[in-house]
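Structural prep section.
Before we set up the soaks we want a predicted structure of the protein with FE2/S2 (inorganic) cluster in place, mainly to decide which crystallisation condition to try first. Input record follows.
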Amino acid sequence: MADHDFEPEIIVFACHYCAYAAADLAGSMRLQYPTNIRMIKLPCTGKLEIIHLLKALEAGADGVYAAGCMEGECHYLKGNLWARKRVEYAKTLLVELGIEPERVEMYNMSSAMGARFAEVANEFTERIRQLGPSPLRGDGAALDVVPATVAATAEEGQPT
Ligand code: FES
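Run finished without errors. Recording the tokens verbatim:
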């Protein structure tokens, strides 16, 4: 049963070309989505490594998702496909650790999908609210350093 007082801390790894722009659009359309999501901008979700997902959870996020371009529309061709594989693999690791795999996810959207961005943010937040706080959750203080550390490793260069 969901604790409606529980406000999940959520980290979004957002591709600069699509989800990050879609979030801006959602803002200009004045669409409602949770304010407790923290966006980390990536040049492509292909830069996202499994360790980034795990580090975000370790730092105290209750849920983490990647938001990349639509399949077939990645500017680096297959970055979003790699990201989906990494997210799926991270889920298997979470199962091994006894943590709900639903705490990580991959979504695809275009820069024109402001409404979809808001919908995903709302749906994912509700999913995590139903799951409750992450078993790894501390006081969340470490979350403040995640954007900087991930950005330092993920910001530069071509997706791999
Ligand atoms: Fe957007 Fe690759 S450029 S996911």
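Observations: The chain has five helices and four strands.
Flagged for discussion at group meeting.
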